[in-house]
Amino acid sequence: MTRRGRPCGDRGLATAELAVALPAVVLVLALCLTAMALGVDHVRAEDAARAGARAASRGEPVAVVREVAATRAPRGASIIVDAGAEGVVVRVVAPARVRLLPRLPSAEATAEALWEPGVRP
Q: Residue 8 burial by CB count (10 A; 0-12/13-18/19+): exposed, middle or buried?
């Protein structure tokens, strides 16, 4: 028996195809969102390292440099300030926010700045 030109055996076929394809779509979406979050964390780490290096090159104390960098860095980031004779290096390392994929790389950034004139380490 047919209904509107289609055999009755095709009823529900679209639902079954959707049920098979939906997990793949959700997985691709989750991977895209994870990659985007890692990219945002990397950009924030770069910005934090640069801001910290600028503050340090002006002669700000290390506590202030870390605070400046921490306000721009991703949550849970560690900030390392290394002052040398020529300038300062600020490194920001933020762990990946995703717990399901533990081998994802962390967001890391390093910025260097020379000492401003009149500033001594």
A: exposed
